[in-house]
C-alpha cells in the first residue's frame, strides 16, 4: 500500500545510466519530483552509487533529445524531463583522435559538452597553435574511408598508425592552457630560422604535453609519402568531388556529442578559413608548419589546380628546404640574437595576410591616387574564330581601366572603360615562354565579360596585376597594400624564372631524391623520375638560399597566389534555376560557377552585402546585396548551415585587428554563424 503522503507528492522514477569503465552497477532508479533541479539529481545519483571518486567532470546526457543537461539550477520540469527519459551520467571530457594537416594523428582529451568553437580553442592551446578561430573539425569523407578500408583489406600486414598521445594535457582535463604560450611580450618560443623550439624557452612547455620531441613532430616537416601511398588517397577529379570535401564540417555552435561524435572517433583538424592573421615565426612554428602541410597536401592531391611551372616551384621548395632542412634542424641550435633580429627584419614583409598588412599610412592614402599608363595588348575571345589580339594605350586610374587607340588620343574619350570592382582576376603566366597575361572576368548583367591583357615583361605585369587585384576589392593604388602586392608578385615570378644549369642537373641520380614524392600523380605519369629530378633541380636554383621558415612562408604565399586559393565549393540550386551550379565561398566573395565547364558566371562581394538569412523550414539561404541585387539558393551537397557559418565566419574574421589582444568575442561569432534554427 502507498501512503497518502507519498501518493500526493507526485514523485516518479527516473532511470539513469552511469558511464563507468569499472565493474559497477550500470543503471540506477531514482525517486524524483518535477521540481528537483539537475544538480539535485546528480547529488542523489552519486549518493546511490556509493563510490568515492572525483565526479566533477560528469554531467547528464539526455539520449533521446541528444542534448546535455548542463544548467544544474534548472528543474526537471523546466528541462522537460519526464519518466520516459533515458539519462546517461557521463564524463564531459573524452578521448578523441585528431588527424592534423601534416597527416599525423594525435590522441587527446576534448570537451564533448562544449560547443565545437570552444573545443577547437582548447585543442589549439594544447597544440600551441594561435588564432584557433581559423580552424575547425571536419568529418572524414566517406569515399576516403572506403579507400582506406580497401587498402587495409588488401595489405597482408595489419596497418599500425603512429599516434601521438597527448592525453595528459592540463587543457584536456578541463583546465585553461598556459597564457605564457600566447603572450607576445615573452621570450620567443621558437627559433625564427629553423622553426625548432628555442632551447632556452622550452621550459614554457613544462605544464603541457608538448615536450620538445612532440613539439618537433608538430612544428617540423618529416618524411614524404611514397607515390603508392598518394595513389591510395582520395583525390577529387571534378568540381562535384571538390564539393564533397567541404560537406563534413561540424557545426561550431553545437557540441561534439550533439553531432553524433563518440569517444575515440577520428576527426580532421583543418584550417577552415583561409585568412591567416598575424603569422609570426617566433610564436607560430606549429601553425606555420600545419598551414604549409595543408597547402602541400592540397597541391599533391590536386584539390587545387596549378600549372606545371608552379608545380615544379612547389616541388623545389618541398624537396630541399622543407624536407632536408627539417631533418638537419633538429640537431641545430640557433641562439644568436643578432641572427634572430636579421631574420625578423627580413621576414617582416613576409607576413602572410591576404589583405596585405593593416598598417595603413593615412597620409599616403589621402594623396593623389596614382595611375598607370602603358602599351598593352588586348585579347578578346571570339566565338567560332581565332582570338583578336591588338595593341592599345591603357590607362589605369581609381578602380577602372580605359584604353585608347594610341598615347596621343588619351586626352579624348576612351574606346572602352572597364570597371574592375568586383571582377575576378586570374593570372595567365608562363615565365619560360615570356608570357605575362592577366585574365579579367568582369561582372555584367547576363554573366561575366572575359578580357585578357598581355604585358611585355615581369615588372609591367607585377604593377598591372597588383592594381587589378586591388581594384577587384574596391581599393586603389594609393592603398598601402599596393607596393607589398607588387613585391609579392615579383618574388613569385623570380622563383619561376629559372634557366637550365648544366652543373645543377648534370647528374640528378647522384642526389638522394625521389622526385615523385613532391609532385601530384598527373606529373609522375607524364615524366620519368630522371626528367622530374632534373626539372625540380632547375627550379631549385631560385630558392636555394632560403632558410627553413622562409621556404615554408614562400610556399604558403605561392599557394595563396593560385587562382583557386581559398575557395570552398558547394553544389547548390539557385532559386528560379532548373539546373545545379557550384557555389565557391571565399574570404571576400561568393562565386557562382558552371558545374559542367568550371567557368565563373557571377561574383558577389561580401563588402556589397547588406544582409543574409536562412529559411530553416525549406533550408534556403537568401542574401541581399547593394543596388537591389538579391539571391537565394538551397545547398545540395551539404547542410545549408555550413554555408551560413562560412559567410558569418569570414565576416567575423574580418573584424580582427592587430591592436586587439588575442581574446575573441565568442558571442559575436555565434551571432554571425549560429542562425536561429
Please explain how this structure is put together:
- The chain has 677 residues and is α+β, with helices and mostly antiparallel strands.
- Helices cover 31% and strands 22% of the residues.
- The strands form 4 sheets. Strands 14-13-12-11-17-16-15 form a 7-stranded antiparallel β-sheet, with helices on one face.
- Helix 13 (458-472) packs across helix 14 (482-496).
- The radius of gyration is 28 Å and the shape is globular.
Tell me what portion of residues adopts beta-strand conformation: 15-25%
CATH topology of the domain at 567-674: PH-domain like
**Radius of gyration from the alpha-carbon trace, in angstroms:** 28 Å
| CATH hierarchy: architecture of the domain at 567-674 | Roll
Largest sheet, if any? 7 strands, antiparallel
Number of strands: 24
Helix content: 25-40%
Q: Averaged pLDDT, please?
A: 81
SS class: alpha+beta
Short description:
By secondary structure, the chain is an alpha+beta fold. Helix content is 31%, strand content 22%.
Please write out the topology.
Layout: H1 4-7, E1 12-18, E2 27-32, H2 38-49, E3 58-62, E4 67-69, H3 76-79, E5 86-91, E6 93-99, E7 105-111, H4 116-127, E8 135-138, H5 142-154, E9 163-165, H6 212-219, H7 227-232, H8 239-245, E10 266-271, H9 285-300, H10 308-329, H11 337-347, H12 362-366, E11 372-380, E12 388-397, E13 400-404, E14 416-419, E15 424-430, E16 435-444, E17 447-455, H13 458-472, H14 482-496, H15 502-505, H16 521-526, H17 529-540, H18 548-560, E18 568-574, E19 581-585, E20 589-593, E21 600-605, E22 609-615, E23 620-625, E24 629-635, H19 640-653, H20 666-673
Parallel strand pairs: 1-5, 6-10, 7-9
Antiparallel strand pairs: 1-2, 3-4, 3-5, 6-7, 8-10, 11-12, 11-17, 12-13, 13-14, 15-16, 16-17, 18-19, 18-24, 19-20, 20-21, 22-23, 23-24
Amino acid at each position: 500500500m502507498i501512503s497518502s503522503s507519498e501518493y500526493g507528492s507526485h514523485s516518479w522514477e527516473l532511470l539513469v545510466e552511469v558511464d563507468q569503465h569499472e565493474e559497477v552497477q550500470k543503471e540506477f532508479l531514482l525517486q524524483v519530483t518535477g521540481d528537483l533541479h539537475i544538480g539535485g539529481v546528480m547529488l542523489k545519483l552519486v549518493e546511490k552509487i556509493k563510490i568515492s571518486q572525483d565526479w566533477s567532470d560528469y554531467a547528464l546526457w539526455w539520449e533521446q533529445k541528444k542534448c546535455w543537461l548542463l544548467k544544474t539550477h534548472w528543474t526537471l520540469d523546466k528541462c522537460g524531463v519526464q519518466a520516459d527519459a533515458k539519462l546517461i551520467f557521463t564524463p564531459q571530457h573524452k578521448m578523441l583522435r585528431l588527424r592534423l594537416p601534416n597527416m599525423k594523428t594525435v590522441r587527446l582529451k576534448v570537451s564533448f559538452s562544449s560547443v565545437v568553437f570552444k573545443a577547437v580553442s582548447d585543442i589549439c592551446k594544447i597544440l600551441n597553435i594561435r588564432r584557433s578561430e581559423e580552424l575547425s573539425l571536419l568529418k572524414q569523407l566517406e569515399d576516403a574511408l572506403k579507400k582506406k578500408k580497401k587498402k587495409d583489406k588488401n595489405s597482408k600486414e595489419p596497418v599500425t598508425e603512429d599516434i601521438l598521445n597527448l592525453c595528459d594535457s592540463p587543457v584536456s582535463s578541463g583546465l585553461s592552457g598556459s597564457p605564457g604560450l600566447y603572450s607576445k611580450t615573452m621570450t620567443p618560443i621558437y627559433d625564427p630560422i629553423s622553426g625548432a623550439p628555442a632551447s632556452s624557452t622550452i621550459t614554457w612547455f613544462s605544464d603541457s604535453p608538448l615536450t620538445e620531441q612532440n613539439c618537433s613532430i608538430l612544428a617540423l616537416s618529416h618524411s614524404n609519402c611514397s607515390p603508392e601511398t598518394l595513389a591510395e588517397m582520395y583525390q577529387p577529379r571534378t568540381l562535384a568531388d571538390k564539393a564533397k570535401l567541404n560537406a563534413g564540417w561540424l557545426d561550431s555552435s553545437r557540441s561534439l556529442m550533439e553531432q553524433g561524435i563518440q569517444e575515440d572517433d577520428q576527426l580532421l583538424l583543418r584550417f577552415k578559413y583561409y585568412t591567416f592573421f598575424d603569422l609570426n615565426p617566433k610564436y607560430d612554428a606549429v601553425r606555420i608548419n600545419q598551414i604549409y602541410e595543408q597547402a602541400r597536401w592540397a597541391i599533391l592531391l590536386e584539390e587545387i589546380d596549378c600549372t606545371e611551372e608552379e608545380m615544379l616551384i612547389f616541388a623545389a621548395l618541398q624537396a630541399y628546404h622543407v624536407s632536408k632542412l627539417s631533418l638537419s634542424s633538429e640537431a641545430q641550435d640557433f641562439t644568436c640574437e643578432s641572427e634572430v633580429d636579421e631574420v625578423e627584419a627580413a621576414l617582416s614583409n613576409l607576413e602572410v595576410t591576404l589583405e596585405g598588412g593593416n598598417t595603413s599610412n593615412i597620409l599616403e592614402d589621402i594623396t593623389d591616387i596614382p595611375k598607370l599608363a602603358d602599351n598593352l595588348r588586348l585579347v578578346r575571345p571570339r566565338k567560332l574564330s581565332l582570338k583578336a589580339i591588338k595593341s592599345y594605350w591603357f590607362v589605369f586610374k581609381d578602380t577602372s581601366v580605359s584604353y585608347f587607340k594610341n598615347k596621343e588620343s588619351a586626352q579624348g574619350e576612351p574606346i572602352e572603360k572597364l570597371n574592375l570592382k568586383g571582377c575576378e582576376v586570374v593570372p595567365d603566366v608562363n615565365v619560360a615562354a615570356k608570357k605575362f597575361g592577366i585574365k579579367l572576368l568582369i561582372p555584367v548583367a547576363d554573366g561575366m565579360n572575359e578580357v585578357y591583357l598581355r604585358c611585355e615583361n615581369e615588372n609591367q605585369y607585377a604593377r598591372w596585376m597588383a592594381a587589378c587585384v586591388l581594384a577587384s576589392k574596391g581599393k586603389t593604388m594609393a592603398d598601402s597594400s599596393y607596393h607589398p602586392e607588387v613585391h609579392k608578385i615579383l618574388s613569385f615570378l623570380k622563383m619561376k624564372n629559372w634557366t637550365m644549369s648544366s652543373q645543377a642537373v648534370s647528374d640528378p641520380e647522384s642526389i638522394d631524391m625521389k622526385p615523385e614524392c613532391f609532385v601530384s600523380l598527373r606529373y609522375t605519369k607524364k615524366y620519368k623520375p630522371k626528367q622530374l629530378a632534373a626539372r625540380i633541380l632547375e627550379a631549385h636554383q631560385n630558392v636555394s638560399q632560403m632558410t627553413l621558415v622562409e621556404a615554408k612562408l614562400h610556399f604558403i604565399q605561392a599557394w595563396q597566389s593560385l587562382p583557386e586559393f581559398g575557395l570552398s565549393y558547394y553544389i547548390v540550386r539557385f532559386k528560379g534555376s532548373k539546373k545545379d551550379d557550384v557555389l565557391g565561398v571565399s574570404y571576400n566573395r561568393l562565386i557562382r560557377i558552371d558545374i559542367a565547364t568550371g567557368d565563373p558566371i557571377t561574383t558577389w562581394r561580401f563588402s556589397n552585402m547588406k544582409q543574409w538569412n536562412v529559411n530553416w523550414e525549406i533550408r534556403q539561404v537568401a542574401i541581399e546585396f547593394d543596388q537591389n541585387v538579391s539571391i537565394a539558393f538551397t545547398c545540395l551537397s551539404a547542410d545549408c548551415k555550413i554555408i551560413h557559418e562560412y559567410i558569418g565566419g569570414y565576416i567575423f574574421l574580418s573584424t580582427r585587428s592587430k591592436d586587439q589582444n588575442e581574446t575573441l568575442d565568442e558571442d559575436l561569432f555565434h551571432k554571425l554563424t549560429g542562425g536561429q534554427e
